[in-house]
Each structure stands twice: as structure tokens, then as C-alpha cells.
Amino acid sequence: MAVSIRDVASRAGVSFTTVSKVLNERPGDRTAPETRLRVVQAAQELGYRPNAVAQSLRSRTTDIIGFYTGLISLDIMDPFHGAVLNGLQHGCEEHHKDLLIHRKFFGDSPEEIYKDLSNRKVDGIVLPSGCDDEIVQRLKASSFPAVGLAAPDAGLSSVYVDSVHGFRLVAAHLAEKGHRRVLYRTQRRDPEIKIEDSERRCHAFAAASAAYGMEVLVTEAPEDGVVTEEEKSLLLAPPSKRPTAVACWNDRYAHQMMTFCRRHGLQTPGDLAVAGFDGFTLPYDPAYQLTTVRAPWEECARTAIGLVVTMTGGNPVPDETVLPVELIHGDTT
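^ LacI family transcriptional regulator, sequence as received from the core. Prediction below:
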């Protein structure tokens, strides 16, 4: 049977109110030091543990930070999802908070989900920014502490990596290597899940490439990054007509392109240069070092938790927090 405050009061020989004041560290408490010591010793001897639910009701806080994923199903085997989850967990550990993951299911109404997220089951929430999810829009319009992750978003304090600068670095690198016709692989548009950062990366690379005098062909690929028939026709065209380099919106797409090159006898970087974005370490040795942009996604998520905690304390936070990226020169370009 759980030990109650009344049990502690009986052991210490004081009133229920005195125990409550001491254990809850109420401001202005004038309990005598010797009485306080008796209460603390009695609580330790009895193994008293405060009721978390009762504490939450009194303080109107839960010490829980939520993470809303929208329609995206988290895959811990995915390097990006793994980095984000690690960052969220480390951020919560740093601030002594728990983490609650919440996603949107088909059939759930936006009103139901919004109420579930904002009914104080959590003190604040981290959510994907730069998307047109209705839940995100409602949270932005409310006073509920919320921080966006992965892209800038007007009306929402956001933490993201400088992907625009990253793809400018990629364009400059490919131009320096002498490339003039480049393929850019972006993700296929999904009417249910719009990820604005993929568009920002594409626009940044295209603009920078044009400034260097490079021609850019843009193709869309499925989520798994497998090379499409359209891309095959471009890459297997006569050498004088095909691209000499491929820039991919993430590393997954780049690794799939490397697989395609190996299967079709294309030498990298001799026949085709390949560059990615993210900079994740693979759980296996791919026998090549991918040229990529290292993005600190784990630090991005950890920072987002810290901003939510700051907001829950009633303190201001910056509209945007941008983390720097780094071009990693591999042997694929």
C-alpha cells in the first residue's frame, strides 16, 4: 500500500499541513528547521513518494513535452528519424522532462487532435514546421507553447539547419569540378504531406547552379529514393546528352543513385558525380565516402526542447534558430 502524507505526519508527530508545506517546498514556509528535518527523515524512512498526478493538478504542469509527427510514421531505422528522436530524448533528459509522441491517424478529425494536444496533457509541443498540416496551423494560432522543427515557419518559433547554404555549397563544389549539366533529385510531392524544406533545398540549388552557369534538370523520386524510369532514361543517354552529376535532396536518394551506378556500370565520379545531404553515418561500410552536407539534426531537436521549456516558463524565444551545416568532401564527386 502506498505511503501517504498522513503516514508521514503520524511518524514525524506533526500535522498534515506541515508535511505538505515541507515536502512541496511552498514559498513563505516558516517551519522550524528541526521540524523540517523530522518530516524529511520520516518521509525517507517510510519510502514516501509524491503523487505525480496530484502534483500536476496543483502546479498545472505535467513535466511532459509532446512531439507531434503529423501523418508521418516514425521509423527508428531511418537515420533522420533516429537523430530527431535522440535529440528530443537528450533534450528532455537535460531539462528533466518526459517525452510523449503523438501522430495523426486517418479518420481523426483536426478538432479532436487539436483538443487532445492542447488539453494540458503536455506542457508544450515540438512539431514539424514548414508544412500545411491543419493541426500545426491551429497550434500556431493559439497561445500554446509550440516550437517548429526542420524549417522556418511564420508565426512559429522554429529550429532548423541551414539547408539553403548547404545546397549552395554543393552547387559551388560541382561547378568547381567542371560540371555543366546536373540532375537534382527531390522527393515526389505528396498531397497529404507537404515538406517545405524539400522545396527550399531545390530552389537554393537551382538558383546557385544557374549563377555558376550550370543547367539543372529536376526529377521527383519516391520516398525510398529508388531511381525512376525517367531518371534512367536521362542517366543512360549518350554521354554527350546526359548529366555529369547528381545532387540529391537527402543521403538516402544519393545512396540509391550509387546503387544504380554500380548496377549499370557507371563509374563514380568519372561517369557521374553524386552528392547528398544529411551526413548520417551508415550502420555498414558502403565502400565509398559520399560527398554530402552534414546537418546537425540531433542538436536541432535537442534545441527545440530547450525552447519549449523556455516558453513554458513564460520567457521569450527567438523566431528562428538556424544551425550551421558543413560540406563533407567524399570520393563520389
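The chain has twelve helices and twelve strands.
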